[in-house]
Amino acid sequence: MDKHLSTLLSASEPEPLEPVTELDQMRRSPTSVCFVITVDRDDRDALARTVQSVLRQTDPAWEIMLCGSVSLQNCIGDWLDIDWRIRRLLPDAGTDEIQNLLRAPAFSTCRFVGLLAQGDVVDDDLVKHMGRCLANDPELDLVYTDEAAMMEDGAVISPFYKPDWSPEHQHAVHLVGRFLAIRKPLLLNLDIPGTGSREADEYALGLAVTRAARRIGHIEDVLYVRSCEHEPRPGGFFSSEGLEPARASLERHLACEHPGVTVVAHPDPGSLQVKWPIPEGLEVTLLILTAMQERTVPGRGRVVLATNFVRSILEKSTFKGYRIIVVDDGHVPDDLRELLSAHGHTTCTFPREGEFSFARKSNFATSLVRSGVALLLNDDLEVISGDWIEALVSHAARPEVGVVGGKLLFPDGRIQHAGISTGLNGSAGHVFLNSPSASLEYGGYASVDRNWGAVTGAVMAYRKDFFDRMGGFDERFRVDYNDIDFCLRCVDAGFRVVFTPHALLYHFHNSSFQRKHDQGHERQEFLARWEHVVKRDPYCGLHLRTICAELPNDRALEHASSY
Q1: Can 6-236 and 284-547 be said to share one CATH topology?
Q2: Residue 25 to residue 21: CA distance in whole angstroms
Q3: What is the mean pLDDT of each run of 10 residues along the chain (563 residues)?
Q4: Contact between 15 and 57 (Cβ < 8 Å)
């Protein structure tokens, strides 16, 4: 059990606190927190559990704002003489959590406010952790924590370990969740129209404040526990009742800046998918790197991998107007050349010299693209989802996004690629490698659009001008780490790397270039250059590193890399 979960189970009377004798101490504290508690039912035990978790805070810079209708004032009044920091917002504040939160800044003496539901509890050190977080980055406007669920018998289960701020992940689910501490000015004059769903209202709040925030921080510990009747799935998924109101909220939120955007709801697992508009006339070029290897593929017999992939593109892809360039090493079978020519596509020979270099071949291939979006592709792939090109290109065309990757499966349905995390395997590795794709993985992290530090070069989309601006792949990484290094340089430059499971393909992995382990000198160069993200990947923290690691399988590679 997480070290902070155990403290949340304590039911003992609060310890005597260091006195806070002056209101100025609250106002001067850079991390004071106002907990806005909406009392929505006459359940005194639940309210006592919640209030006492705040009374136990080891940092005294807090206050409680109790809100509720006239009929619940006796329940609220029991607490008003316990501590001067426990206050009543308005006698008739009502039971709408979001509206109560929006009223709170006008009355609160604290710097930050956040929702704490009746029956839920916070860790004793939450305010102290906030202080440490703000000391490291005083310009944070939002700070969110990991969370868990507490059942009726008091058991704390289903910890939801979150990544650092991940915009695409927040679009897919309610990532920030609770506890979410919001700097007061962000709530002034903020209008959150009601949706009829409590969870969708909270999601709409999260969308509004994350858009307004200068900087967003994440505390990587379970510091909030929700009281639940049924065991939830970690991941911030929406219930069947909240899914459609949440979808409508996200679409409204995005449409004001991005006309033409649409949002699709996926009832299983209860997530959202943003379909960004693709600019009219955008050039899309598919670059298939190949040495024309043959392989026996289950259900297809002995095939030339490039030919098999091209056929699947032509037969299954729904996107119109793309161009294929097969980048070969000097030999193209007649049937493939004829197939490409018949559909207006072409080949180009890579002038290979010396040892094989994926980085050099990728740079050469991209130089063939005039403009628009390039899709860098291995030849040992096969299309599964017909709209895979749309899923990649719609993200890659966005100016704030640098690189986009898809979801790749082994022929038997196990996950081969769903994003890359630095730190796995001592350098970098594929998350959820060998996990079955038929069942939902932890947090749905391989089943929703989200951000990672890197994606594989086997399927990688980017804008041609952006690739040139970044200098392409570093050719010092001849075989390994070139794709990961390129992605990390993009993130360093302020762009995001997006993984989308909606670009789904089979990957007959390691058909193109056989190796047992990475190049030692390339690994050393990678570790020297990216030591800080190897120590801690912001999109896959220390808790997640163990959860997302590959499952044992004698067919799995010792590490994950590009070609």
Answers
A1: yes
A2: 8
A3: 49 43 58 94 94 96 94 89 91 86 93 97 97 95 97 92 97 97 94 90 97 96 94 91 97 93 96 97 98 87 95 97 96 96 97 90 98 98 98 98 98 95 91 93 96 97 98 96 98 98 92 53 94 94 85 44 29
A4: no
The second-level CATH assignment, the architecture, of 284-547 is: Alpha-Beta Complex (3.90)
- Report yes or no: 194 and 104 within 8 Å, Cβ to Cβ: no
What single-letter DSSP state applies at residue 188? T
Domain 6-236: homologous superfamily in CATH: Spore Coat Polysaccharide Biosynthesis Protein SpsA; Chain A (3.90.550.10)
Tell me whether residue 423 is exposed, middle or buried, using C-beta atoms within 10 angstroms of its C-beta: 0 to 12, 13 to 18, 19 or more: buried
Q: Are 441 and 432 in contact (CB under 8 A)?
A: yes
The two beta strands, 496-507 and 381-383, are antiparallel
Instruction: Burial-class residue 426 by CB neighbours within 10 Å (0-12, 13-18, 19+).
Output: exposed
Cα 465 from Cα 444, distance rounded (Å) = 33
Overall pTM > 0.85: yes
Nearest to 115 by CA among 133, 103, 128: 103
Task: Please report how many Cα atoms fall inside a 13 Å half-sphere around the Cα of residue 470, on the Cβ side.
Answer: 27
Is residue 389 within 8 Å of 507, Cβ to Cβ? no
Burial track 286-297 (b if 16+ CB lie within 10 A, e otherwise)? bbbbbbbbeeeb
Dihedral pair phi/psi, residue 37, rounded to 5° = -110, 120
Q: Residue 10's CB: how many other CB atoms inside 10 A?
A: 13
> Which residue shows structure tokens 């379970």?
222
Give Dmax over CA atoms of the chain in angstroms: 87
